[in-house]
Amino acid sequence: MNKKRLQDILWIFLLISSLLTAANVSGAEGNNTGKAGDVLLLLIPATAYGTAFFLDDKGGKIQFYKSFLTNLGVTLALKFSVNKERPDQSSNDSFPSLHTSATFQSAAFIQKRYGWKYAIPAYIGATFVGYSRVYAQKHYVEDVVAGAVIGIFSSYCFTTPYKTVTVTPVAGNGFYGLTIKKIW
Fold first, then answer.
1. What are the transmembrane regions (predicted)?
2. Contact in structure between 94 and 84 (CB atoms under 8 Å)
3. Range of the structural domain that residue 152 is part of
């Protein structure tokens, strides 16, 4: 196994394990809306990273890593410093919503990297995740809105559009021209 493939597998493991940890502590047991939000917490980031992975989009993978880790760091730093009690009084880490920040970070990554038409389902799913967190009484509306803003901002800081067409000038002995390459 080459070094790059091993790195990809380790990043996938990190992504899935961190999201499973968040889903496991979310307290959605017995609540179908909350469980659906937990499933989307895994599905939306996996789709975002998986798209870059399967397109062999090296730049996209790096941009996803940066935005994912920035989002995770900012969200967790705020959770542990603000100490806001959850609506169900189960703990003091309500602000901001990690579920919402992770799903909006991933939706924004898809939108910035691959375009709106691919991101609309991810944004709808991320919005449902935010709703599910309020419905399950794990967050207040402001926790969810803050999570969405942090997630979107994290991706907007690091993500650039995926270029499917490149134009390169070419010069040789007595000729000038352009090379046009399209990635299908």
1. 37-55
2. yes
3. 3-182
Domain count, the chain: 1
Cis status, amide bond into 96, omega within 30 of 0: yes
Query: What are phi and psi for residue 146, nearest 5 degrees?
Result: -60, -40
CATH number, domain of 88, equals 1.20.144
Tell me the sheet residues that pair with 169: 178
Size (the chain), residues: 184
Residue type, 137: Q
**pLDDT digits 0-9 by tens, 1-24:** 455 665 666 566 566 666 666 555
Q: Are 106 and 45 in contact (CB under 8 A)?
A: yes
| Helix, strand or coil, per DSSP, at residue 23 | helix
Listed in order, strand segments (DSSP E) in the chain are 165-172, 175-182
